[in-house]
Amino acid sequence: MYSGGQERSNRTLHQELVNLTGKRKGVSFTYVPYCHEGSELYYNRAVQRYRSFGVRKFNFLDIDTPKGPNSDSLKKAFQSDIIYLSGGNTFYFLKNIKRSGLLKPLRKYVAEGGVIAGLSAGAHIMTPHIQLAGLKGTDPDKNEVGLKSFSALNLVPFEFIPHFNPSTQGIKAVKKYSNSSKNPIYASADGGGIVIRDDRFTVYGKAWIFYEGEMLRLT
């Protein structure tokens, strides 16, 4: 789970992501953009970035189309060692994922040993729901698509805030929210994130945890 940014410290996360596949050669990678516009540019950047970490096969899965992705693209995606959910508007992204019928297949992919990564919006979507994506005081996304159901992949038992800036306003907003949430909330500054391998949970970069109105600095 990437907070965001492309600081040098993200290189550790990139390497950890590839290590999760358990492969030394021939790692395959599917990039899923949140929307079609401008996606080729960011896909090409991802190719350049992860090629230096040993990824050799790349696939592009565009779900922002009237008919959704074709069967050949989906087959290649779920045969990949890594599926990478990009950053962008979280509400727009989740709407496209749901419209394309990808929630259950993505959960199955992870359950069967596939590696999934999320950057910012993509990390939000890995959690139980994306309600935090619109929280005022924390660089919120706008729900311009009118998404009604915020339920997401539910791959982890916590919520996540990317791009976290521990300002007075931000801390106050998340503390208040945490009083009504059933889940602990992990907040990460850019350049950091979280790696989960089986039952091992590793935090990279600056991070905080919020629970029941309290905040604790982790790293």
Automatic annotation (TrEMBL):
Keyword NAD: no
Superkingdom of the source species: Eukaryota
Record-given protein name: Peptidase S51
Family: Belongs to the peptidase S51 family.
Family matches, as InterPro entries: Class_I_gatase-like (IPR029062), Peptidase_S51 (IPR005320)
Keyword hit for Protease: yes
Keywords assigned by UniProt, alphabetized: Hydrolase, Protease, Serine protease
Stored SUPFAM superfamilies: Class I glutamine amidotransferase-like
Family matches, as CDD domains: GAT1_Peptidase_E_like
